[in-house]
Amino acid sequence: MTALPASTLALANRYAREFPELALPWQAAEALDPELLVLNVPLALELGMDPERLRSPEGVRMLIGTAVPAGATPVAQVYAGHQFGGYSPRLGDGRALLLGEIEEDDGRLRDLHLKGSGRTPFARGGDGLAAVGPMLREYIVSEAMHALGVPTTRSLAVVETGRTIRREEPLPGAVLARIASSHLRVGTFQYARSTGDIELLRRLADHAIRRHAPSAAEADRPGLALLEGVIGAQAELVAKWMLVGFVHGVMNTDNMTISGETIDYGPCAFMERLDPATVFSSIDDHGRYAYGNQPAVARWNLTRLAEALLPIVADDQDEAVALVTAALGTFPARYNAAWSSGMREKLGLRPGVDDAASTLATDLLPMLEDSQVDLTSFFRSLSGLIRGRRDAVRDAFVDRDAFDAWTQRWLQLGPDADAMDRVNPTYIPRNHLVEEALAAATEGDLDPFARLLDVVLRPFEERPGLERYAAPSPQRSFRAYRTYCGT
Question: Angle CA(153)–CA(155)–CA(158) in degrees, nearest 5?
Answer without folding.
Answer: 150
